[in-house]
Design goal:
By secondary structure, the protein is of the alpha/beta class. It has helices at 2-42, 68-74, 76-99, 106-121, 124-135, 139-166, 169-177, 181-189, 194-217, 229-236, 244-275, 357-365, 391-400, 409-412, 419-430, 435-448, 454-458, 467-478, 497-513, 525-531, 549-554, 559-566, 607-611, and strands at 313-324, 331-342, 346-350, 373-375, 378-381, 402-405, 485-489, 517-522, 534-539, 542-548, 617-619, 622-624. It is elongated and about 115 Å long.
Amino acid sequence: MTTHASRYAFRIGPTGMLGALGLLLLLFVAVAGPVIWGADASHLDVAAAQQGPSAQHLLGTDSLGRDMFARVMSGARLSLVLAVLATALGSAAGVLLGAFPTVLGRRGRRAWESVMNTAIAFPALLLALCVATVAGVGAKGAVWALGIASAPNFARLTYTLASSVSGSDYVLAARILGVSRPRLMLRHVLPNIAEPLIVTTTLQVGGMLIALSGLSFIGLGVQPPSYDWGRLLNENLNRIYTAPAAALAPGVAIVIAGLVFTALGESATALVRADAPTAGAARPRRFGGAPRPTAAPWQQAEAAIPTADAGAYALRVHDLSVVFPGPVGPVHTVRGVTLDVRRGERVGIVGESGSGKTLTAMAIAGLVPEPGRVTAARMEIAGRDPGTLRAPERRRLLGSMTAVVFQDPLSSFNPALKMGRQLTEASEVHLGLPHARAIRLAQERLHQVRIPSPALRMAQYPHELSGGMRQRAMIAMGLMGEPELIIADEPTTALDVTVQEQIVRLLGQINQDTTAAILMISHDISVVTSLCHRVVVMYAGHIVEDIDVASLLAGPAHPYTQALLASVPHMGSDRNQPLATIPGRPPQPRELPAGCAFAPRCPFASDTCRSRQPPLQVRDGRRVACWHPRPPRAADPTDTTTTTAGPA
């Protein structure tokens, strides 16, 4: 306990300690002031009017002989209460106004921004004076005036903070799950921006105290017989030269209280920074059921794709495109992707960064962020087209029968919610399970993905789990809804080699124990070949080769696929030679050439390659988009990771 206390004392520093002590003093005066000094503050003694400081009256007396020290001390309660009320009103209104637009559509956000920009452009002090006049002179009108005047700026801050998390993976997933907008805002958005808002609110109290005192000083705030520090300052300022102590005491109290709240806010900012983490035809059997008799062991990736019910597909996508608006026209990031995945099949998508593999997966899962536009001649998941379904059915298809395992589970999990709350949300929303049943199911799923002590882990926050454990928990979350398609987006990128192997084994075991197909996205072709039956190679938003693993290891047809394989080091690599690389860089989506996008980097490119886009055609049992495909070679049992491009 002592160690923790000393650590926090070190973080907040002497300024924070002084602020904390000052707050305790202010609270004491606000609570006890009217009790201790109230009688003296209201006692009239005209004979002792306007006296200077003395042993009996430390700050002198006012024009009616009332003790100024007692009035300053007893006036603290009303001054602080009004400041807190005005801050609470402004911050509450600002949070609601600023957070709700983040869960609206694009048009709703634009309309909100127009209105709020106009409100912010209007001077806050002038707005406060207008509201105070309309609401009426007095303490109530002053509170409403300053609360309303401060709301637009607080709303803008909240909107900026909320926008930074509204595009997070866990918010997008919650949208697909069908979480209502109020629940989305209260559960997934606001908890993750609470700390900076609390810090800002603390700082705001000091500013509100000064503003309220200013309104009282000019006669628009507290009215007699009530009094706050601003009112006392107004009544005694004309004695600044004859009795400076009585005139300046209320002002000094205002300054001290403002400094206390400023110190608290600054210390809270430092403390928050120090504590910030560094960082869904036939339904499948639940994970853990009896394995399919026809399923091959996951380690034998080159084994034949299961042929049982070969006409049933977990995924069918034809001519898929993803387009974003650009400064000089639309930018095509995914271009005409056609991909069919059978139930129980494991398909990998590989390519360099920017090849469009992740956007393809996000388009299938319905997670492409605005203003992206997804089009497809055909899109079916488990035999159903999401575009033809009503909103509830579409959310169930994408949120329950499709599972997405994101690349970075730390950013994909909501950092403000415990693991149990996040794991149970899908089953509660889509399966209609009561909370207790959903808790039991979540514990079963955590146990099945080999996470020890499931009950303990469900009571922890995401940052309290290791990287490998978080990735397993992400897989368990996907299994809460009995998915027919599992999309794994770079699930091993941030993990060490040992944990990578464990995750790959786990995905293979899940595929073996269910009919769920797996679509795995990775830049590491060696990881994909260790798990998948088939590999789809993408370049510049287009599929350049679709090949089974056995043929891939025997020799791919596309030069880009060959170059990817050659760039993967293996145990037989000559350590005296530099690592193989692919010269040049992938083209930007807005700078695609007229012909083959790989032509500028391909050693076999011809004039035809540079002028005409090659179609994706079937050659030797694989689909390849190349005018000069490489001929297959016999598999070398001593080399299962690399291949060498042959002559044209």
